Amino acid sequence: MRKMTGALLALAALACVQTARAEGLDPTEQKIVAEIRAHAPQALALLEQSVLINSGTMNTRGVRDVGALFRKQFDELGFTTRWIDLPPEMRRAGHLVATRDGNRGKRLLLLGHLDTVFEPGSDVPMWQRDGDKVRGQGVSDMKGGDVIVIEALRALHRVGALDGTRIAVMFTGDEEEAGNPKSVSRGDMVALAKRSDVALSFEGSILDKNGQATATVGRRATATWELEVKARQGHSMAVFGANGYGAVYETARILDAFRQQVIEPGLTFNPGLILGGTEVAFDGATSRGTAFGKTNVIANTATVKADLRYLDYPQRDRAQARMRDIVAQNLPGTSATIAFHESYPPMAVTPGNLKVLDLYSRVSQDAGLGAIAPLPAEARGAGDIQFVAPLLDSLDGLGASGNGAHSPNEDLDVGSIERSAVRAALLIYRLTR
């Protein structure tokens, strides 16, 4: 009797959930969801097809081949497509752009990228299915997100909801290592943003510690810095004395002072490479270097290559000022200089971004998929959306869920393709009404 009662209660609860879903979505939205769920196998097949093409950033042919595969999908959906070539000296494949002109609702810019961190010859498996998980090169970062864009738009197309919409899609070919100068490699993206109202980016969806889905309303800016230290060369017996402390001790002083004194929430700085000795050489193109020195000689030179990540420009300015002050407090017999170079601008947490998140969360709840929480800005690295976020309301993290991005264990939760496509399609539908 108790078992029967439990089963009845479970059925009643399921019926309530289904009713809630129906009540949260209008008839067209219910059709959109049904289309996505009915074509989930085809979405996974498209993902597999794209992943089996190596598209490491420097594999320009592979990036173009993935672009051609996705371009065909957009052509079938009635988009006008084009491939943007970058100057040959940039050694990047270029970008895929698909546009649809109309006169209804918000003008949307949807962002993805075609490249991965896995170059040809990588020993990471291309594609391995294991139940509800797929492991492979770029499955979650971010070919899964690209497929979600396509499947969301395909469902909208099937129910006639794309008619009259104003949507631009840009899949870049060098997100993992953007070509320089970025004013060129991201110039077309900025131009599209200036003609749009809302930007949505489909980098992977991250679950918080409670297992709740999140979206990204802010990302930290990235910059690089270089520390150059000089000192008097001499016999090691005179270190700490007439010949001073040498370049290596001065470098250690500076870096440890940074660690102890340049502290703010959301601010990080990472010295990724240090070379010191009496002869130092560094190749910026390959990020490799050599150093020569002897234990009985005081080092006369040291160099540090590092990054800096910050939430906003005031935080950047405070950090750089304090770092310069520390660098100037030289040990005897040494001198040092520091130089900063901007890379990705910050994606500030704005009221507009939070408003888009609120709509996205409402869509998810109406579809019975739960609320969406904001992800702390420091929980993500740099991304393409940062180039357009200063210009329009933006939201990121609408892609597939997985683990181990950029590692041999990168994987994807197969069910997240359907869930994220449902959320994305409904969000696009409501934004373009």
UniProtKB/TrEMBL annotation:
<protein>
    <submittedName>
        <fullName>M20/M25/M40 family metallo-hydrolase</fullName>
    </submittedName>
</protein>
<dbReference type="InterPro" id="IPR001261">
    <property type="entry name" value="ArgE/DapE_CS"/>
</dbReference>
<keyword id="KW-0479">Metal-binding</keyword>
<keyword id="KW-0862">Zinc</keyword>
<dbReference type="InterPro" id="IPR011650">
    <property type="entry name" value="Peptidase_M20_dimer"/>
</dbReference>
<keyword id="KW-0732">Signal</keyword>
<dbReference type="InterPro" id="IPR036264">
    <property type="entry name" value="Bact_exopeptidase_dim_dom"/>
</dbReference>
<keyword id="KW-0378">Hydrolase</keyword>
<feature type="domain" description="Peptidase M20 dimerisation">
    <location>
        <begin position="217"/>
        <end position="332"/>
    </location>
</feature>
<dbReference type="InterPro" id="IPR002933">
    <property type="entry name" value="Peptidase_M20"/>
</dbReference>
<feature type="signal peptide">
    <location>
        <begin position="1"/>
        <end position="22"/>
    </location>
</feature>
<dbReference type="Pfam" id="PF01546">
    <property type="entry name" value="Peptidase_M20"/>
</dbReference>
<dbReference type="Pfam" id="PF07687">
    <property type="entry name" value="M20_dimer"/>
</dbReference>
<dbReference type="InterPro" id="IPR050072">
    <property type="entry name" value="Peptidase_M20A"/>
</dbReference>
